[in-house]
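We treat protein structure as text, and this decision shapes the records that our systems exchange. The remainder of this section carries one protein's record, kept here as part of the documentation:
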Amino acid sequence: MTGQNVIAALAADGADVDRLVADLPADQWTRPTPAPRWTVAHQVAHLAATFRMAAMAAGQPDAFRQLLAHLNEDFSGNVERAMAPYLAEEPAVLLRRFREERIAAETALTAVPEGQVVPWLVRPIPAPVLAMAGMMELFGHGQDIADGLGVTRSHSDRLRYLCEFAVRVWDFGYISRGLATPEVSLGFDLIAPSGAPWQLGAADATERISGPAVDFCLLVTRRRHRDDLALEATGAVAEGWLDIAQAYRGPAGEGRRPGQFSPAASRS
């Protein structure tokens, strides 16, 4: 993994989400998405706010730390306040600001010297890992937009970076629920969109997750219920992990119901 490759993948994923809304009529920005009470505009506003924070963390770390100091324990409230300035804009302006925030984040991340960490919400992380987190946000909220619009997405092997990030933070599902993280290692045997095999995590682990990488990403972003995905677990810990997997900190949210989306649509 090189920092430039990850940031290039982040930019490509951002462009993919951009294309979902670039030609969207203004009245379609209020369409509901599967996230309760969130419209297409909410999804784009959240992404814009997230990229603004990433740009600040990478380019203005002291200002970012000051921002963190003013956040409170009301996670949902913090999210709503961050989105508010973007939601106040007309769709055309919101789209422009989304693009500006993405470019600013990509530029700031590119400028971080190799090996240097940047501050983030939980702990300082390398710039490429923050780019991976951005890809996770784009995947999840992009899926919400696609579902709201009734659009089928296609995926590339850039998903490798998101899979690697999810494996890196495999314990987030336990942490968000106040559960003790099991003292085991998990292994992941995934099939890339291209059909290539990816082995991630502990190669010798007896507790394993296997299946399509797209399904894995839908699981860890909680955009599909495990029952609608072609993922298999070997071992009791791996089986339980499928119920709580998430690649983000904070509340797990309601997730998606079994059968809410067809398995065929999930693996498009």
Observations:
- Strands lie at 117-118, 125-126, 186-191, 197-201, 207-212, 232-234.
